[in-house]
Amino acid sequence: MNIFVVDANIFSISLKNLSLSVFEDDIYLPWSEGMKEGSIISVDEVYRELDALWGAENPKDKRQKEGNWLKDHKYAFQNPSNAECTLVIENI
């Protein structure tokens, strides 16, 4: 199985431009499935960045469906291990 580590820009651009109300079946359901099976992951720092913009409690944005989707998938935003962090540093 391939594992895709997704950065904030992919989620943020999609949440901004591709409404969940319109693209749920085409984009967000496949992403949800990939996140459930572990083939789409990200890191906890990406979640914090996205939550600041799209969080369900964010009063600046009325697109709470997107914020709730993000919150429902928080489990896919993992804390990298020390070994993973070392690997990233060594390959910069």
Give a description of the structure.
By secondary structure, the protein is mainly α. The chain has one domain (4-90). It contains 5 helices and 3 strands. It has helices spanning 8-17, 20-37, 44-54, 64-72, 82-90; strands at residues 4-5, 40-43, 77-78. The chain has a 3-stranded parallel beta sheet. Helix 1 (8-17) packs parallel to helix 3 and helix 3 runs antiparallel to helix 4 (64-72). The chain is globular, with a radius of gyration of 14 Å. It starts with a strand and ends with a helix.
Feature tags:
3-stranded parallel β-sheet, 92 residues, mainly alpha, 62% helix
Mean pLDDT: 87
Residue stretches low in confidence (pLDDT < 50, at least 5 long) are none
| Widest sheet, order of strands | 1-2-3
Helix content: 55-70%
Number of domains: 1
Shape: globular
Largest sheet composition:
3 strands, parallel
Q: What pattern of helices and strands is seen along the backbone?
A: EHHEHHEH
Helical segment tally? Answer: 5
Give the termini distance in whole angstroms.
Answer: 25 Å
Report the sheet-strand fraction.
5-15%
The class by helix and strand makeup works out as: mainly alpha
Total beta strands: 3
CA-atom Rg in angstroms = 14 Å
